[in-house]
Amino acid sequence: MNESAEKELKELLQRHVPRGNAEPRRDLWPQMLKRMEAPPRKWAWLDWALAGTLLAGLLLNPGTILVLLYHL
Amino acid sequence: MSIAERFAQGDRDAFEELFREYQGDVYRWVMRIVRDTGVAEDLTVEAFWKIFQAHARFDPDRNFAAWARRIATNLALDQLRKRRRELPLLGEPKEQPAACREANPGERAEAKRWIEQAMNELPPKLRVVATLALIEEVTYREIGEALGIPEATARVRGFRAVRMLREKLKNLGTNS
Predict the structure, then answer these.
(1) What's the whole-model pTM score?
(2) Residues B107 and B154 in one domain
(3) Are B44 and B122 in contact (CB under 8 A)?
(4) What is the pLDDT of residues B65-123, one digit of tens each?
(5) A35-57 per-position pLDDT tens digit
(6) What number is the ipTM of this complex?
(7) CB contact under 8 A, B115 and A12
(8) A11: enclosing H helix or E strand
(9) Which of B22, B48, B107 to substitute to test the interface with A, most A CBs within 10 Å?
(10) Would residue B14 count as lying in a domain?
(11) Sign of the CA dihedral with B29 first, then B35, B40, and B43 last
């Protein structure tokens, strides 16, 4: 793997993929104010249950932690 | 007292000034990663919300734009993790590059589909580097700063992404 491979791939991608350049469509301050005035988000009982299940699963199968970390 | 110093003390007017000055920068950066206008808007607001909450930890001598970009990048990366298969990679460009216009539309569509599939299959932390380095031509130094990792690590992720993309595209039947 070398820089020429990267250059080739770059050319291929740039031929087919547009750049993500875009300006904001509107002023986001009103949305920001709404966010600031919204009540703080709380975890529902289902969130806690899912988090607990995930934690228990990871503790029972520690090997999956590495797989999970790789994919994160 | 500077705007940054006032913001660090929790001054809401100073925050609004900073928001108005940097919302465009943050939005454009996030858009380059997530490529969805609605998601980019939400993430911009969410990033500034986190910035506002963290005002006491902000050092006014630091670069506000770089700090905001790092917070926004982490949120965008989380978004890629959550919605790995849903976020588009390939919106329609405002103007097709010359090479695209010349190619057969059917072949072009198929190539785009392959590329999108290959990119979507990358782990998010590689996808973000691949998108920024290969498509947006952002330097590895800038990518490292935005992700809070050394430039060398960003470069290694770039190489891994290139290797995986080449492999996936080869398997999908296109030559890269």
Answers:
(1) 0.77
(2) yes
(3) no
(4) 999 999 999 999 999 988 766 656 655 444 444 444 455 667 777 888 888 888 888 99
(5) 998 877 777 788 888 899 999 99
(6) 0.75
(7) yes
(8) helix A3-16
(9) B48
(10) yes
(11) negative
* CATH of residue B160: 1.10.10.10
Chain B partners within 8 Å of A29 (Cβ): 16, 19-20, 23
The amino acid at B146: A
Q: Measure CB to CB from residue B92 to each of A18, A21, A31 and give the nearest one.
A: A18
User: What token pair was written down for B151?
Assistant: 């430039």
Q: Given B124, B136, B158, which is nearest A19 (Cβ)?
A: B136
Domain residue extents for chain A:
45-72
Identify whether residues B148 and B104 lie together within a single domain: yes
Residues 6+ apart with CB under 8 A from B100: A15, A16, B93, B108
Same domain, B77 and B118: no
pLDDT digits (tens, 9 = 90+) for B3-40: 999 999 999 999 999 999 999 999 999 999 998 899 99
Residue B93 inside a domain? The answer is: no
Residue B88 lies in a domain: no
> Which residues are CB-contacts of B73 (< 8 A; sequence separation ≥ 6)?
B29, B30, B33, B128, B146, B147
Q: Per the CB < 8 Å rule, is B49 touching A32?
A: yes
- For residue B52, the model assigns a pLDDT of 95
Give the residue from B16, B23, B160 with the most A CB atoms within 10 Å of its CB, the best one to mutate: B23
What's the one-letter identity of residue B102?
E
Range of the domain at B123: 98-172
User: Domains in chain B: how many in total?
Assistant: 2
